[in-house]
Specification:
heterotrimer, B: alpha/beta, four-stranded parallel beta sheet, globular, C: alpha/beta, Rossmann fold, 8 strands
Amino acid sequence: MSRASAGLDIGSTATKCAVVEDGRLVRSVIVPSMPDMVEAAREALRQAGAEGLPVVTTGYGRALHDPRLAQVSEITALAAGVGALRPEAATVVDIGGQDSKVVRVQDGKVLDFAMNDRCAAGTGRFLEVMSRVLGIPQDRFDEVSRADVEPLPISSTCTVFAESEVVGRLSRREPPDRILKGVLAAVCSRVAALGRQVGVAAPVVATGGPARSLAVIRALSEALGMEVVPLLPDPQGVTAFGAALICSRRSGG
Amino acid sequence: MGWERLLEVARDPVAEARARMDREGRPLAVALSSYVPMEILDAFGLCAVRWGPVAEDFPRADGVMQAYACSFVRSALEALLSGDLPAGLVATASGCDGITAVPGMLSVARPDLATAHLRLPIRVDGAAARTQAGRALVAFCEEIRERLGVPLDLTRLDRSARDRQEVRKRILACFEGLAAGSFSAVPAYGAALAAQAMDPAEWLAAFPAEPILPEAGGVPVILSGESVPSLEVIEDLESLGLRVVADDTNTATREASRRVALEAQDLVQSIASSLVDRPWHSPERLVPDRPTAVATRARDAGARAAILLHQKFCDPCAFEAPGLASALREAGIPSLVLELDRQKRLTGGQRTRVQTLVESLP
Amino acid sequence: MRKLQHNAVLARTIRNQVLWTRMGSRLGLPVAWVTSGSPVELVLAAGFIPFYPENHAAICAAREMSQGLAEHAEGRGYSRDLCSYARVDLGSQWTGRTPLGRLVPPDLVLVSNNICGTVQNWFRLTAEHFRVPMFFLDTPFHDGPPTEGDVAYVREQLVAMAPEISRVGWRRITEDRLRRVTERSREALELWAQVLETASGRPAPFTSFDAFVHMAPIVSMRGTRRCVAYYRGLLQELRQRSARGDSAIPDERARVIWDNIAIWPAHKPLKKLFERHRVALVADTYTSAWTVEHLDPKDPFTGLAKAYTDILLNHGVAHRVEVLTRMIRRFGAQGFVLHSNRSCKRYSLGQYGVRQVVTGRTGVPGVVIEADMADPRAVSMEHLEQRLVPFFESLGAGT
């Protein structure tokens, strides 16, 4: 009889908890991190039925929750998660709430990585700002940004400049769907720039909240010049899953 | 006395500078480059400190300088403009374009403040460079004399050159102890940071005979970069499982490795030569083999990884980083660039990157 | 408003220069890659064909190739905070992509830090990439005229590098050859100064937007006969325009001065923005960065040492204030625009103070705009309009 282990990923926008048994995911939950990360962590553990299980924490808020718990970085956890779900993957592109990462992986281990943690361009935050300026909610991105829409380029990648560029285009009554397509291309070009630092190798999988959007995946594939596959059905839960796997290995489960 | 005193200064050098002014009753001279020889400022009877700490917010500096200047320069400007650092003289030396711009900026924002710029050669090869350094240092002394109306005291220069050389030797010895495991990183950096703010004789008196031994464990790393912004950053790195075994930071070993020929007839010329002959120059000086030398030092000390602590918007660092990383990689040492901007501690993202590096080491 | 006939002449001249470089290199003539502020006279005297990576990066930016090239350099770990000319040009070297068809590889690089500290790193990487020697001229930064010591130091380096350069070149640098080249440089620089001076006429027959483009020969062909001939022709055309009262801007309503390098990714829309508001950009610190008076055919080494130590970017705030104040008065400007160029710290840091002092001295207002000389990702036309339009309106100019 094997024991269950948990992984807790306390991100900047969402907290995820995964429970594994025999290396297989049995439960996964997601709760908003704000306004109280510590409370969110507790709530995620409760909803996942993980209280009392051995747990490895990861993510932006990993040190806040309970410093006595074992921690791993979210990049290590991400690689472990991807390694179990898509062992053939060579590169993981993760677009998070306030950072983005490109990780070269092999057998669930990190070979090399690059991370953008300084600037909102190329992160979910940029998409959030632009979604507000354009008046297009993020869950409508796919429907608005269809394949046949011709993008209007957004040249600035500085969020402030890009915002005024988008406002300028809107004030000239240029179509929002074409602007959105340009915005997606700008975000993905920034992620592709990160990728060049480590060298992107196929196959490429995408994780993080925005990876749910087909429009984002399309723009990413275009920016990287190779096919990108979203890690469905739960691209946001991979890191928590990876942390749970690391936990089960450590506790011998 | 002892470590407590040195570490206290290292944590708040600005407070030490102000206390010294009150205590010594002498005007404060702030040096903004490691290429400003502090012994010269001492010899003018000034209370000499080298700027090191980096601030997190620069409301006044933002008004006189663009956001794409590095935070070393901007935080120094902030301290000068806000009056936190009531300097009577600001001394700069040629090097990067950021520091070079400071005297001009101050001439507008604080026209009352005296500045002196040491126009050292950027090239450090050949006799021409040494001659130029000598001429530049003489002109620098002349500029200070003119601006402040005080003469260079040769007796004081002799004493200070000796004291400062001794300080540098002891700092270097602390760092040499890191690889051997006979010294630990926080006091070593503390000693170096404290020396920037303290009177050299007082530093020597406070420097304890007993070393602080490191705790066991940790991944051995080399630290490179222009300035160690704070002891807190060192502590952050240690808390993430790193143990510094070798150093290539400007504020620590690079500066501590300068040697003045103390017995020379003309001490001013001899100090000028020491600036040109200084080993392990900063990347703004044209030295061909810096990356290889750093990689060799890392390997010899048994480092398994390298942390390049760079100031964001530091051009010499940014140009050096890829070549340095590749030389280290060839020596089998992976590296991580941490760009520091307006911060005294590592950010969450930076902690993640350091932790990933540690976790992914074979 | 009539177009400059010399726009076509310029295009032809540059095309010929590119062809000449390519052909000469194929014939075995040595090529020197040089910075805009390096003493090109030295390599010309040794028979080199000079090539200007800065110029090349500007062309890449104007032809919308800069972003891709910069991204390549960034992919190799060179930070986006570094100079965009450097990133673009290194990207071009490493990928071989260029709007010129093919890059002609150097036999040596010649660098001087009188324009910034960036070039020494950029050209070191270039020299390493092509495995050629690098010659570095260290020119001490100074406010005020160069001191005797500085001149001696720079001269000593020039004299020391001359035989080394000769060895790589195909003929020896003699004082005589250097004298001839220096004389031609001086003549071209004098003509160029007169060209720029024509914009002091009202209305201005020529603006800095034209100068940004027509400076190409003075940068990259200085010291040649063709360069002298080009500016003689341009000056003649401009004098004719002035005599006829032809203006660069129809119904000129305001005149302003520019500080810093052009914003190449937005060159055309920016030029149109000025035109639309009837604002003539009559002078700038960028195209007039050289000082002619030092070049001395009688003592070429000392003349070169002085001339290349005394260029605009080798001086600080006080000098910039002088230059801008003089220009505002001489050209009768009502305002000045400071391009805060993210790529060029040497040019830009200090501009906030410059603005304050120049306005204090002249009573003329200035505006700071944030942009970049070659990276389109750091240029926003919307931002430029938001800053410039109200400024133009405050000068009494408008659409």
